[in-house]
Amino acid sequence: MNKKTSENIEELYALGDELFRHPELGYKEFTNKRILTEYFEKHGLKVKGLGLRTAFKVTVREGSPRIGLIAELDAIPTLGHPFANKDDSNAAHSCGHSTQCAIMAYTLVQLKDLIKKGSVTVYFTPAEEFTDIAFREELIRKKEIKYIGGKVNMLTEGMFDEEDLFIHLHTMGKGNYHFSLNTSLCGFIYKQITFKGKASHAAVSPDQGINALNAFVLFDNAINMLRETFKEEDHVRIHGILAEGGQTVNSIPAKTVYECYVRSSSQETLRQVAEQVDQAAKYCAKAIGASASVRSIPGYLPMRQSRLINDVIKKNMLNFCKEEEIHDDELSMAAGDIGDLSCFKPTVQFGYSGFAGSCHGKDLCIVDKERAYLEPSEVVIETVRYLTENPEYVRRIKKEFQASLSKEDYIRYLEGK
Q: What secondary structure letter does DSSP report for 68?
């Protein structure tokens, strides 16, 4: 470990602890932004707001190559987590985003005096978790945002355009590996399906009602039957919650609401399965005289990793572990708006350890601060140093990268056209 990054380690851990104890949902991360702003100001770095309520960036140096770092600000509702924010839907950093922010903030401060060429910018992005939909749709109505996801808004507004490449990282949760890299992520579509029937007295006149809950149950069984038709290589998942099951026990349910994600590592399969879900809802409802309406919101796109960047990252990981302790080429069923960014810029997301419990679980906690904060910071620092000192390698990364869609096609996709 170089001397510079061994300084102020306790400050890094304290920053991480403070962020972990102040979870906030997407577009509400004002406390996290304040904590990070104070940290940067203490170290002589200027914060630049990017709109979207809480998005901001901090830059070290100017020039080429231009390296972008990504840190996600938001938490996710997690009932029962010891640091759940009772005033914000039990938001908790059970996905470890607070550690990303501490790592990247500390990394940038160290790089301030370490890099002599190029520039490095950390983008602190809001609202990665696709949740709190009603609140975000209200922001859309008010024209404060255009889309649900934070990076999605930032992409469509061109906030990432000037960077050559991006480095992101994410906790792996509890596991047997020290690091992971070259992990693929799935894409998903969010659906809200409303089944409508006819209310009637549940005991006296059930024959005069049309049970919307039964329509959902029939649909749910249809989805279970569809699962055996999915190809293993497409990594399809359909998972959801019954958001509303009826109005009162004493009445036949006139309305039920089901919310789900349809996921796949294949964008074409994702489209096909989403259509199957729509048809199943419509015809299962029709079979018992009910009706179904489906509302779809494009989620996030599958992740494309830049192996050339990960080659550098892996060399730096080996300073802390053996090669067999690196989980390489995993296909994860998870998704994130980092996948959207990877369609336009050479991008990586690597995993780091130091946690116990499960991601999105009430038991997620940090048990090894060196692994959870310092080691991934050192990996990013040394990777950025190499890239800024070897601009020809960055040019090769850019030359071998091909965007998977145009900005215009992306916006049409987001608009459902």
A: E
pLDDT at 7 over 80: no
* Helix, strand, coil % over all residues of the chain, rounded to 5: 40, 20, 40
**Cα separation values, 266 from 185, 190, 263, 331, Å:** 10, 16, 9, 12
CATH number assigned to the domain with residue range 3-185+301-414, chosen from the 4 options 1.10.3290.10, 3.30.360.10, 3.10.20.30, 3.40.630.10: 3.40.630.10
Residues 197, 194: Cα–Cα separation, whole Å: 10
Q: What is the mean pLDDT of residues 64-80?
A: 98
Q: What is the average pLDDT score of the chain?
A: 95
217-237 residues labelled b (16+ CB within 10 A) or e (exposed): bbbbebbeeeeeebeeebbbb
Angstrom distance (rounded) from CA 136 to CA 149: 9
C-alpha 27/C-alpha 50 separation (Å) is 12
Domain range 187-298, CATH architecture: 2-Layer Sandwich (3.30)
Q: Is the peptide bond before 23 cis (omega within 30 degrees of 0)?
A: no
Q: What is the pLDDT of residue 4?
A: 47
Count CB neighbours of 17 within 10 A: 15
Instruction: Spell out the alpha helix ranges (H) of 112-200.
Output: 133-141, 150-156
The Cα–Cα gap between 273 and 279 comes to: 10
Report whether 230 contacts 179 (CB < 8 A): no
Angle between helices 391-400 and 375-389 (to 10 degrees): 90
Residue 149 CB-density burial (10 A; 0-12 exposed, 13-18 middle, 19+ buried): buried
Residue ranges per domain, the chain? 3-185+301-414, 187-298
16: pLDDT strictly greater than 90: yes
* pTM for this predicted structure: 0.91
Element (H, E) at 412: helix 407-414
Distance CA 238, CA 227 (A): 9
pLDDT value, residue 176: 77
